[in-house]
Amino acid sequence: MKIQNKFIRYIIYALIAAVVAVALYFYLGFFGNPISKLLCKNTAEKYVAANYPECHVERWGYNFKDGNYFANIQKEGSPDTYFFVYTDWLGNLKYDSYESYVTSGHNTTNRMMMEYRAVLDSALPQESVDYTLDIFYGDILCNGSYEKYVWDENPEKIVAIPREDIVIDGQYDYSELGYKYGYICLYVNDEDVSVDRACEILLDVKEKLNKNGIGFYYIDFVLTLPRDADGTPNDDERRINIELFRWDDIYEEGLADRVQTAHDELTAYYAKMDAQKTAEMKAAEN
Question: Model pTM greater than 0.90?
């Protein structure tokens, strides 16, 4: 009987150990181990002191997606000087992202985008219009930081702020940049999905933004029916859809024709791409 009880206890201990081992495996896989985090912190502090003395280690941790330990580096008083130092689990330096985040202009253009969006949101709040702003955001088009695919067979060069004009920690006047390099994406829900209604909304958007001293150069605009009660898109897929429509082309005379042409061209392009994809899939099957 005692031998049997010992055997049962051993089985229980083994099961507990197995459960703990599995739990620890998953915990470390998602959160990393604390010793490696400290090694990463120490490596980052020494590396930053030697190479970026004006910066400091803000925080550190583990990225379960790539298995790397990281330290977030920040320069006090600089909104655009932040990057990461990466190490392995032993604290060995792998690389830093200073060039790809800071000197490339990535952080600066990202900040410009967020600031421009904030100005747009304040200039065109939902309560100021009689249609639903389903998706509404903007960006400042910058060479090297924004890639926009142009669907026209004879595309014009995308108008964008030159790289040399992007200054780290620079302060920007979005009432000027918006008209020159601004891009907005606007999805509107309304009971009337027609070219005439699209024209009314485009003119209204332009007027309201202009009154607030903000504009854009290009707009991607989609007009669809309101979403269902549960928030999902309406099954009725009727829409007016235009891309890279210029601010200067939004004026009453002939607007309906310009919107209809832009919609038809984009619809034809999507149909062409769908046909090519279907052909490629059939060819791959054979």
Answer: no
